[in-house]
């Protein structure tokens, strides 16, 4: 179990982060995700972080970097399920995730990606 | 991070199992899932086990039990992403998951639940 699974949902990819990210796992995720974006011609990536109670600057940077990588591959990233404490920490760390869209949950994130206005 | 997140996708719930299940985590998952089925009036549950390389009888039983619980709450369970080695082990353990439907990936599992014949 050294990989975070990437699930395909139509034109989008869904990644649920449940475990503590260490350097190697984060690198593997970025490799896997960029490959899958190209292979599946994904138009968007949903990163669910609802099970993260705490984040550190490493995870914050990793999310920002992953979103930037997706963007240059023409896929939009939406981070979903962020807990209030995580939002506070990220801003305090100076990692306000510029260019990353956020949504309350996967459903709303999916709506954001499809351009549906059912928010 | 002592909970496995349950994501809502329309009328269905999605659970991605990425970590080693121990007793307490499995119990928490079953509690959370049954509560969410009732609260969200879910009609189906997708359990993604694509990141599990190995299963033991505990996980096998847990999946079977969870599916049975969902069924009595009127939600259908589809196990998706099972690796060949896991299928072999489950059958060898005598846990052929009766009554549990399976699909290759989340997308196909979702199609199975919605009754779409786009398989």
From TrEMBL, chains A, B:
InterPro entries: Bact_StressResp_Reg, STAS_dom, STAS_dom_sf. It comes from Paraburkholderia antibiotica. It holds the Pfam family STAS. This is STAS domain-containing protein. Residues 1-113 form the STAS domain.
């Amino acid at each position: 179990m050294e990989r975070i699974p990437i699930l395909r949902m139509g034109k989008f990819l869904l990644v649920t982060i449940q475990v503590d990210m260490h350097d190697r796992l984060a690198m593997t995720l970025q490799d896997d995700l960029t490959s899958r974006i190209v292979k599946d011609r994904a138009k968007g990536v949903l990163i669910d972080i609802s099970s993260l109670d705490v984040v550190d600057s490493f995870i914050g940077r990793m999310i920002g970097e992953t979103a930037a990588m997706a963007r240059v591959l023409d896929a939009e990233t939406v981070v979903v399920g962020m807990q209030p404490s995580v939002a506070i920490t990220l801003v305090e760390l100076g990692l306000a995730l510029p260019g990353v869209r956020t949504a309350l949950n996967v459903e709303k994130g999916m709506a954001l990606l499809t351009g549906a206005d059912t928010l």
